[in-house]
Amino acid sequence: MKIDVLTLFPKMFEAFKEESIIGRAIKNKKVEINIHNIRDYTLDKHNRVDDYSYGGGKGMVLMIEPVKRALDSVRTKDSLVIMMTPQGEVYNQKKAYELSKYKHIVLLCGHYEGFDERIRSLVDLELSIGDYVLTGGELASQVIIDSVVRLIDGVIEKDSHLNDSFNNNLLDYPVYTHPAEFEGMKVPDVLLSGNHKLIDKWRYEQSLEKTKNKRPDLLKKEDD
Ligand code: 6GU
């Protein structure tokens, strides 16, 4: 998979691209991630990428011209172009699976007060990561990249994400490691029993119980 990110703050992606599972996936050529500075695409003699809002009002608006030129330089007929905005469709694990099937994803991040409305006509999809406001789309795009890249074949062990919370709309069952007892808190006996049938049953029941208590809304969902 190839991912291109258009941003005004490319440095926000430096550590993100180097560390942990994303860093390893890049090194192992499971994904290519390219960061582009939208400012490099402006034709304005003062390198401006934003301007005042027509009709007045506070805050600067990202201009369509540098965004269009940046998009044109990276998109092909196979690209899915996504705009990061709190006005978008709310992202979830089902969407992560959908995105993980694409060959090429382009993520457009805005800062400032907003995007010129006409930029919306240049993209395939608008995504939000939740009902709160971030100062820009960069962190949101990193959330998308992280959750999609770990689903690419060979990035993590397959079993590892088949058991993730939100698959089957259930939260994870509890897990434990050494020691078997810590300050009086014991690992449940069933996990030390070696009986895998019983362990699987216990884990399923625990998942169900946790979901009922913490996220009953997930049990009502049928669409994903
Ligand atoms: Cl994608 N962008 C911004 N600026 N804020 C957000 C968001 C995106 N998703 C949730 N809040």
Question: How is this fold's topology laid out?
Answer:
Layout: E1 2-7, H1 14-18, H2 20-27, E2 32-37, E3 50-52, E4 60-62, H3 64-74, E5 79-90, H4 93-99, E6 104-109, E7 114-115, E8 125-128, H5 138-149, H6 158-162, E9 181-182, E10 185-186, H7 189-192, H8 196-214, H9 216-220
Parallel strand pairs: 1-2, 1-6, 4-7, 5-6, 5-8
Antiparallel strand pairs: 3-4, 9-10
The chain binds 6-chloroguanine.
6-chloroguanine (6GU) is lined by residues 84-86, 127-130, 132-134, 136-137, 140.
Task: Describe this protein's structure.
Helix content is 34%, strand content 21%. The protein is built from nine helices and ten strands. The strands form three sheets. It has a five-stranded parallel β-sheet with strand order 2-1-6-5-8. Strands 3-4-7 form a three-stranded mixed β-sheet, with no helix packed on it. The protein is elongated and about 70 Å long. The two termini are 24 Å apart. The model has no long low-confidence stretch (mean pLDDT 95). The protein binds 6-chloroguanine. Residues 84-86, 127-130, 132-134, 136-137, 140 line the site of 6-chloroguanine. The site of 6-chloroguanine has 13 residues, from strand 5 and strand 8.
For the largest sheet, list the strands in their spatial order: 2-1-6-5-8
The count of β-strands is 10
Quote the distance from N terminus to C terminus: 24 Å
CATH topology of the largest domain: Alpha/beta knot
CATH class of the largest domain: Alpha Beta
What's the overall geometry? elongated
Let me know the CATH homologous superfamily of the largest domain: SPOUT methyltransferase, trefoil knot domain
**What compounds sit in this structure?**
6-chloroguanine
Q: What's the CATH architecture of the largest domain? A: 3-Layer(aba) Sandwich
In round numbers, the mean pLDDT is 95
> Sheet bearing the most strands, described?
5 strands, parallel
Structural class: alpha/beta
Rg is 22 Å
Spans of at least 5 consecutive residues with low confidence: none
Report the helical percentage. Answer: 25-40%
Beta-strand fraction estimate: 15-25%
